[in-house]
Design goal:
By secondary structure, the chain is mainly β. The chain has a single domain, classed as Jelly Rolls (Sandwich), CATH 2.60.120.10. The protein is built from no helices and six strands. Strands 1, 2, 3, 4, 5 and 6 form a six-stranded antiparallel sheet that branches. It is globular. The N and C termini lie far apart (45 Å). The relative contact order is 0.28. The mean pLDDT is 90.
C-alpha cells in the first residue's frame, strides 16, 4: 500500500533548529530546511555531518569551504555537500537559502552542533 501521508509546513510557523534553521517538510528519507536572512559573520568551524545536503541560494552571498575547496554561493546557484565531507560556511551578505538533507538532518541529533 502506498504511503498517503501529506505534510505541509508554513515557513512562518516552522520550528527552529539549534543554529537558527527553520525545519520545513520532512519525510522518512529526506527533509527541507530554510536559512532565512542569516547575518554576515566569521567562518563557522569546520564540521562533518552524517547526512548529504543539497542547497539553493535565494538571496545574499556566502562562501562554502569543502574539503579544501572554496566556492562562492550567490542567488540562483545550488550546491552539494556530500555526507561526511568536512565543510564550513561564511556568510558574506544577508543570506537566505533552502536545503534538503538525506537522511533528515533533524532526526537522531544529526543537526546539533558537534560536541566540543
Amino acid at each position: 500500500m502506498a504511503d498517503k501521508t501529506v505534510v505541509k509546513v508554513d515557513a512562518t510557523h516552522a520550528p527552529k533548529g539549534p543554529e537558527g534553521q527553520h525545519y520545513l517538510a520532512a519525510g522518512r528519507s529526506l527533509s527541507m530546511r530554510l536559512w532565512k536572512n542569516e547575518a554576515p559573520d566569521a567562518a563557522k568551524p569546520p564540521v562533518r555531518r552524517d547526512y548529504e545536503t543539497v542547497g539553493f541560494v535565494i538571496a545574499g552571498r556566502a562562501e562554502l569551504s569543502i574539503e579544501g575547496q572554496m566556492i562562492r554561493l550567490e542567488p540562483g546557484e545550488s550546491w552539494i555537500v556530500p555526507r561526511g565531507a568536512e565543510h564550513s560556511y561564511r556568510i558574506l551578505e544577508a543570506f537566505t537559502a533552502v536545503e534538503a538533507t538525506h537522511p533528515p538532518a533533524e532526526v537522531h541529533g544529526r543537526d546539533h552542533p558537534p560536541a566540543a
